[in-house]
Every structure is written in C-alpha cells, then in structure tokens.
Design goal:
Blueprint lengths: L8 E6 L5 H11 L9 H9 L3 E6 L6 E7 L3 E3 L4 E11 L8 H16 L6 E9 L4 H8 L2 E9 L19 E8 L4 H14 L1 E3 L4 E7 L14
Helix pairs in contact: 3-4
C-alpha cells in the first residue's frame, strides 16, 4: 500500500452493497486470524442497513483503509431499551497508528445515534474483544468505552461468526467486554465538531489529517443513551 505514506485526507462514509467485493477482499486479507469472522452475509446485511462504515484514502483510487460495523440491535421491549454492538473494527496495517481506528469507532457511535434519534427508549453500546487482541481496545477506550471484564459470548450474542474461536466442545467464547459511558458523549460531540473543522492530529508525522464524513448530523440527543 502506498497511499498512506502521503495520507492527508481520510474519507469515511456508509458502505454501499456495490462495495462488498472490495470489502470482502480487505477483510480476508487483513483479518490476521485475531478477529472473529464477519462473513459476507453479515457484512451485506450491515451494508443494506447502512450500518457498515468504511474509511478510504481520499485519492483518485480511494483505497480502502478501514471498516467498522454497527451490529443489529438486541431489543428489550419491556424495558424500552436496546443494546447495540460496535465491532468489525479493522484498519489496514500501513494506516495503523494514524488515529483511523479511533476515528471509525467514534463516527460509528455518532452515526448510529444520529440515525436512530427518533427511536423510542435508550440505547446501550457495547464492544467485545478476543482475548489477546488488545489493539482495538485503546481506540474504544478513547471513544468512551469502559472495561466490563471478561464475559462468555455465545453464538447469536454478536452479529459475527465466533464458532472458530470456541474450544472443542465449548458453547461459548470468553472475551473482554466494554460499554460506552454516556458521560463521554458531550466530549465526543465536541471532538466531532473539531474534527470536521481541523481534522485528526497524526502525532507520528506531526500533521493533521482532514476528515470528510457523509450523512451524519452533529445534533446528537444526549438523553438517548442509557446511563
């Protein structure tokens, strides 16, 4: 990959079904065996529901450099709440350390809040990490997700294939979990507004990356996240 060497602008947008071939190649190439599988049906469902975000180098070729998925909701009708997982975070190796992971994590959260602002009830945002895959945890921590310890995740609990991670005969996979704390929302909204104005600072190269984002309003209802 050569585009990230001179990367100055990152374009983040909602994936279209026509992007799936490129996204599948990207995921198959850079999964590195540490992430639980996001198979084509899950990715296609997320794209059709406008829940799959992609980051591209803003260049003539628009090379794909990152993905993140806002998973299907787990709705509790009697409690008027829903739980949504932010996952499928994957960044091209040459773009790592450039704040792309944190950018995708925050924008996925804000995108879902904006898209669901008219829905009833509160929403809880969660994330799960395979034990030993510590790289994405910092991006989620910086986005306001706080550790919730190790939990057992069963098939069907997350919108991904975890069967390959289960030990022989086991019916669940032990993963680290995190939950978004609403006290961080105001700071993230401020970050979003600053990002649109100034970009994201790339400390490694001592310069700012410009950011463009499609289809996201900065008007985020603060009371829309459960405490």
């Amino acid at each position: 990959m050569t585009e990230t060497a001179g990367l100055s602008t990152v374009h983040v947008g909602i994936a279209a079904p026509s992007d799936m071939a490129a996204i599948k190649r990207f995921v198959d190439t850079f999964n590195e065996g540490m992430l639980f599988g996001r198979r084509v049906p899950e990715l296609m469902r997320a794209a059709n529901a406008h829940r799959l975000l992609v980051a591209r180098a803003a260049s003539p070729t628009g090379e794909l450099i990152g993905t993140v998925v806002v998973s299907d909701d787990v709705v509790e009708p009697t409690l008027h709440t829903r739980t949504t997982e932010i996952g499928g975070l994957l960044v091209h190796p040459h773009a790592r350390g450039r704040r792309v992971a944190g950018l995708l994590t925050r924008l996925a959260l804000l995108h879902d809040l904006s898209a669901s602002s008219g829905a009833d009830g509160a929403v809880t945002y969660v994330a799960h990490f395979v034990l030993g895959n510590d790289a994405p945890r910092e991006a989620f921590r910086a986005a306001g997700f706080e550790p919730q310890g190790i939990v057992e995740v069963h098939p069907g609990d997350v919108d991904a294939d975890i069967s390959t991670l289960a030990a022989p005969g086991a019916h669940a996979v032990r993963m680290r979990s995190a939950r978004f704390d609403p006290k961080h929302l105001a700071a993230i909204v401020d970050w979003y507004r600053t990002t649109l104005r100034s970009g994201v600072y790339d400390a490694g190269r001592g310069r700012w990356l410009n950011v463009r984002f499609d289809e996201l309003s900065a008007e985020i209802p603060i009371d829309h996240i459960s405490v």
